[in-house]
């Protein structure tokens, strides 16, 4: 059973206070020369992401006045971040790397000996993808970008250009035209997995993300957490409900759809044969944290390959594939079938706020909703940082760029504190050895 979060009804009253105060601030701040922000939009550059003159500590403390100031700035400064801007910026790699601070990333010995791999399945918002990579970046980590083949030409160009500037970022050698709830989404990650296993980097764990995810922990924090797994995996895996069982009980075909996804998996009627090898089905999420040993085993297993082929005509196979094979007897980091459900709130991989659980499991969304998922607003900052997950979804700079700015600032501060602590320890040890 998922751990329940006490409903923070004070957060709702805080939001109402923000809305009221923002009306006053809209008038007072416009007439004031103090803390006034210029509305002249320069071409997008690395400093654009840090243009908000906000106190993130005050926003974390739910200070309504600071939140009101942030609302005013957001209204004045929001602009569309064009994909071609990243292509132009990365046309000079030296300038890009220096300006964005990629050359200044320092890592501990523990991080050097524990490289991580990332599979990024993306299709839009090139600058958000770059910010995600920058937040996770160390020279010893490795990244695979799978861009949707039906993405815009400008987005694809931006991803190719970004990969050319970063030696440990690759574009998936094989790419899918991804359609919602079909096998194509699962195959996108599998393509990156295959490429990452072939790389020279002997990564310890692989984490898959999408373009609207963002980390809540620094790299050293992730390394410590993953080291403590001792080869185990971290993902959602639950007994299927009756409704979710319909997803793999019947044959589905990719057909045209009336919704925005254009094509999706549609149930056609015939009931499927049971899964091969008497596999017991579990359901979960498309997102995971998996050990290298698990991935190597999975790619060489006939049982897994047969199960993948069986899943081709199911609905949203990525939401039962990983959850099921991690329960197979004998797989590295196995979750025994007898073990109780591991829900999305129990797994630390990815924190998502579903609209239909707001007010019961967690406080109301302060941003916006998309497909029943909260696109976070700045009012979620405290909740996101304190809940204990490693990543969160969804973020969108067109909805609330301030929350992303504050998360970036939080990561940067923690990274500086970590480096300072390790330097102090090194100096102290050196002094003791020389005395």
List keywords for this structure.
16 helices; 6-stranded mixed sheet; glycosyltransferase; 15% strand; 435 residues; acetylglucosaminyltransferase activity; 3-stranded mixed sheet; Spore Coat Polysaccharide Biosynthesis Protein SpsA, Chain A; 13 strands; transmembrane helix
CATH architecture annotation of the largest domain: Alpha-Beta Complex
Instruction: Look up the CATH topology of the largest domain.
Output: Spore Coat Polysaccharide Biosynthesis Protein SpsA, Chain A
Q: With helices defined by DSSP (H or I, 4 residues minimum), what is the helix count?
A: 16
Average pLDDT level: 88
Q: Sketch the major β-sheet.
A: 6 strands, mixed
Strand content: 15-25%
Strands, count: 13
Low-confidence stretches: 1-48
CATH classification class of the largest domain = Alpha Beta
Helical percent range? 40-55%
Gap from first CA to last CA: 56 Å
The SS-based structural class is alpha/beta
What string gives the helices and strands in order?
HHHHHHEHEHEHEEHEHEEEHHHEEEHEH
Q: Going across the biggest sheet, name each strand in turn.
A: 3-2-1-4-9-6
Number of domains: 2
Query: What sort of overall outline do the alpha carbons produce when their principal axes are compared?
Result: globular
- Compute the gyration radius: what is it? 23 Å
Pfam families: Branch (PF02485)
Family: Belongs to the glycosyltransferase 14 family.
Signal peptide: 1-20
Pathway: Protein modification; protein glycosylation
């Amino acid at each position: 059973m998922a751990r329940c979060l006490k409903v923070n009804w004070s957060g709702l009253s805080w939001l109402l206070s923000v809305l009221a105060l923002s009306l006053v601030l809209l008038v007072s701040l416009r007439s004031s020369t103090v803390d006034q922000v210029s509305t002249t939009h320069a071409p997008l550059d690395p400093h654009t992401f840090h243009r908000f003159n906000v106190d993130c500590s005050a926003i974390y403390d739910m200070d309504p006045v600071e939140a009101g100031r942030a609302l005013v700035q957001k209204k004045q400064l929001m602009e569309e971040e064009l994909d071609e801007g990243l292509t132009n910026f990365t046309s000079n790699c030296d300038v890009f790397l220096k300006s964005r601070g990629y050359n200044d990333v320092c890592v501990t010995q523990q991080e050097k000996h524990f490289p991580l791999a990332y599979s990024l399945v993306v299709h839009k918002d090139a600058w958000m993808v770059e910010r995600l990579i920058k937040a996770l970046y160390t020279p010893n980590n490795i990244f695979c970008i799978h861009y949707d083949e039906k993405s815009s030409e400008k987005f694809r160009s931006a991803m190719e250009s970004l990969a050319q500037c970063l030696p440990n970022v690759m574009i998936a050698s094989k790419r899918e035209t991804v359609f919602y709830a079909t096998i194509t989404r699962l195959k996108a990650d599998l393509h990156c997995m295959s490429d990452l296993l072939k790389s020279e980097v002997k990564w310890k764990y692989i984490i898959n993300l999408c373009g609207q995810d963002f980390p809540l922990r620094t790299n050293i924090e992730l390394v410590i957490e993953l080291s403590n797994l001792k080869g185990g995996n971290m993902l959602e895996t639950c007994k299927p409900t009756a409704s979710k069982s319909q997803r793999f009980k019947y044959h589905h075909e990719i057909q045209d759809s009336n919704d925005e996804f254009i094509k999706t998996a549609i149930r056609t009627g015939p009931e499927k044969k049971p899964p091969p090898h008497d596999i017991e089905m579990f359901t979960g999420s498309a997102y995971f944290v998996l050990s290298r040993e698990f991935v190597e085993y999975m790619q060489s297993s006939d049982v897994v390959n047969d199960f993948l082929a069986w899943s081709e005509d199911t609905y949203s196979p990525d939401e039962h594939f990983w959850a099921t094979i991690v329960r197979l007897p004998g797989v590295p980091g196995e979750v025994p079938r007898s073990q109780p459900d591991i829900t999305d709130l129990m797994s630390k991989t990815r924190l998502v706020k579903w609209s239909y659980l707001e007010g019961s499991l967690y406080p109301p969304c302060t941003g916006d909703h998309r497909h029943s998922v909260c696109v976070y607003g700045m009012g979620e900052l405290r909740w996101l940082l304190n809940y204990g997950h490693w990543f969160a979804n969804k973020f969108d700079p067109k909805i609330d760029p301030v929350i992303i700015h504050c998360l970036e600032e939080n990561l940067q501060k923690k990274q500086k504190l970590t480096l300072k602590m390790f330097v102090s320890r090194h100096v102290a040890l050196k002094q003791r050895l020389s005395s």
